[in-house]
Description:
- The protein has two domains: 2-199 and 308-336, Rossmann fold, CATH 3.40.50.620; 220-301, Tyrosyl-Transfer RNA Synthetase.
- The protein has helices at residues 2-10, 26-39, 51-58, 62-79, 96-105, 110-114, 117-125, 134-137, 139-149, 162-179, 222-230, 251-259, 262-273, 279-305, 308-336, and strands at residues 13-18, 44-49, 86-90, 154-157, 191-194.
- The radius of gyration is 23 Å and the shape is elongated.
- The longest helix has 29 residues, at 308-336.
- 56% of the residues lie in helices and 7% in strands.
- Helix 4 crosses helix 14, helix 5 crosses helix 9 (139-149) and helix 11 (222-230) packs antiparallel against helix 14.
- By secondary structure, the protein is mainly alpha-helical.
- Strand 4 (154-157), helix 10 and strand 5 form a beta-alpha-beta unit.
Amino acid sequence: xxxxxxxxxxxxxxxxxxxxxxxxxxxxxxxxxxxxxxxxxxxxxxxxxxxxxxxxxxxxxxxxxxxxxxxxxxxxxxxxxxxxxxxxxxxxxxxxxxxxxxxxxxxxxxxxxxxxxxxxxxxxxxxxxxxxxxxxxxxxxxxxxxxxxxxxxxxxxxxxxxxxxxxxxxxxxxxxxxxxxxxxxxxxxxxxxxxxxxxxxxxxxxxxxxxxxxxxxxxxxxxxxxxxxxxxxxxxxxxxxxxxxxxxxxxxxxxxxxxxxxxxxxxxxxxxxxxxxxxxxxxxxxxxxxxxxxxxxxxxxxxxxxxxxxxxxxxxxxxxxxxxxxxxxxxxxxxxxxxxxx
Length: 342
């Protein structure tokens, strides 16, 4: 028995979700999905499509959220998120998330939510939307419920999301203190698992974002990708083929730093600074690497699109696994809150 308990303690539980905000692109792949691929190899992972979170800003357009969710899930499967290794599910299909969110709201100080940095930041950035709603103020608490539901001890995040994990940790401690006195804590201290930040820029050098129209989406055709790369801006000093350039002033060079081999980067640097190669020659080297990475993903995506029922079955199975786990947690939460009436 002691050996079994020790074994359980050694298992690291990971929870992470993603809301649909348009077509997934290389920035999502490099910044999030590649990290998930690594984590699923030796961690117990719960990955969910956050449709309720999508409604915090798109409550007037639920059809957009729904369409984006299925498209996103297909991308996850296409890049290699494996239902045999991870639990893949849709947030709203596990209604216990809403119940835990409600119960936690009774004991969470309002000031804790108002101090979350992204709250005021997003209100200022999304001025065209009416975000003066309880749902928007409370979305960090819903995130906490998402994490606590599976008793996760780590969540993969970037630095900007660390305050959300700190909030979750404080809420879990408050719950354990108020309702579990003399009983082993129900919720572990969740830690922020800082992930390597993607250094991949957008096609124009800014952050890759659909808002800037500078993305390479996972679902676009190779012809679209090729056209985008061939028209990427380069060092403005290279007006003519015979003009020498400076790689550091070229966005394509940033992509080479991520995709190309050291020998290829040396070749590009030499060719650029001496005008030995043209910008199109430089981009062809990059395109070869992009094809190697993207074409298998797009082939798997095309296959999944032909099998929508299989995709739905995969997600339905994940929903069922997640819900069974959620029901176990909620049984303990209700007992802690003296809400057993049988």
